[in-house]
């Protein structure tokens, strides 16, 4: 086995912090993504009818009745899990179950509740120490959006014609045999693209962003922001949001493979704080699942992982991910294994819970904010959307308790060790032939060594530790309680079962540097 030496990710210097600053709370965040229609049902004053049964196979148009009252009733479940931040898929008035077809940005969708109920939910979450960010869909609206509907009714005489990119009249908004004669996202006629060069449109979007930050949300997840190809727009967006709340989090949905192309354009400190880290997801799938990948579940998305990675190649890709951005940005990245736009990780792994647990161990010990897509913690599966948007089960008999316990343990460890949230990162060892990858996280005297065995064989490993520990230092496994000793700058003896990982913590007083 060869020591695979990589440069360290080190904490930001004061000079770097003054140039790039991200919300401090994000470093401590454990995110939980909620698709509102499928998470939990609660009572509303006017309960909708004609719903699919809860747990029915998801369809493109069907609604299952999840709402904000339901979420409010599950906040204590999230606290018990260890979650302290929620990312909501869109909650504003819309005619789609995913609500990316927004027709009123100022009102919560009545199927989900009301602005009053959202106020109650936000207050209840904040009382429990849970931050809340919303999905901002600002590239496109819907055919029901008032200004677009006005153009449908009034044609070229409408005062709102400059709000969109109109190419002819009458608008072919409902003519399935005709191409839309206006710009629409991916050519979908139901999603007319905003003309953000129009000052009135810009002002409307910025007012929406400020309104909800003033209301009390803790940030925005931006839907397809690269499609608004205008740095000045996003710089102004940031200024308005940060003036309303300097600690508001701005995370963009930017799909880049991170090896061939980065998101540096948006992560210079003047636009976004972070991106949804699909590069992290890709690397985890290629290494931890590797040649067991269910290829059919990766075919629909750009930059879908294909070629498996061995441990050394994985180490190299992680080095690239960590080196692409300022450390301050890295510590704020939204690190997810799956989302509403991807097949479930466990399904891609063909149901092998070991491969999910390995990835979660890495996710929870890696720099940046780990994000859980609702239901992953109980083993929820699903293929391409809409199948990845299945209803959450609240029947404990249907839960995978082994996976749930693993999530809870790892979250608890992350929250107990500042080094995992704010510390340096350095790869210590990678073996392509044995499938072993080891790294260290350290902040002052809080030092943890994480060793991952991504092979089908049991291995006893001797990991080089460099100058991080004095001779005779004792490290204790946080999962099993067993202790191991450092001798001759090597950690001796941990035996790793196939497809498993261990987290070792320095016993106080045995640190060298």
Describe the structure.
With 513 residues, the protein is α/β, with parallel strands linked by helices. Among the domains are: 140-193, Oligo-1,6-glucosidase, Domain 2 (Oligo-1,6-glucosidase, domain 2, Alpha-Beta Complex), CATH 3.90.400; 421-506, Golgi alpha-mannosidase II (Immunoglobulin-like), CATH 2.60.40.1180. It contains 15 helices and 18 strands. The strands form three sheets. The chain has an eight-stranded parallel sheet. The protein has an eight-stranded antiparallel sheet with strand order 11-12-13-18-15-16-17-14.
Descriptive terms for the model:
513 residues, alpha/beta, Oligo-1,6-glucosidase, domain 2, Immunoglobulin-like, 8-stranded antiparallel beta sheet, disordered N terminus
Structural class, please? alpha/beta
N-to-C terminal Cα separation, in Å? 25 Å
If you consult CATH, what is the topology of the domain at 421-506? Immunoglobulin-like
Q: Any idea what the shape is? A: globular
| Whole-angstrom Rg | 24 Å
Secondary-structure arrangement, i.e. CATH architecture of the domain at 421-506: Sandwich
Number of strands: 18
Q: Count of helical segments? A: 15
Strand order of the largest sheet: 8-7-6-5-2-1-10-9
Mean pLDDT: 93
Give the % helix. 25-40%
The largest sheet is: 8 strands, parallel
Q: What's the CATH H-level homologous superfamily of the domain at 421-506?
A: Golgi alpha-mannosidase II
Give a short synopsis of this structure:
Helix content is 28%, strand content 19%. By secondary structure, the chain is α/β, with parallel strands linked by helices.
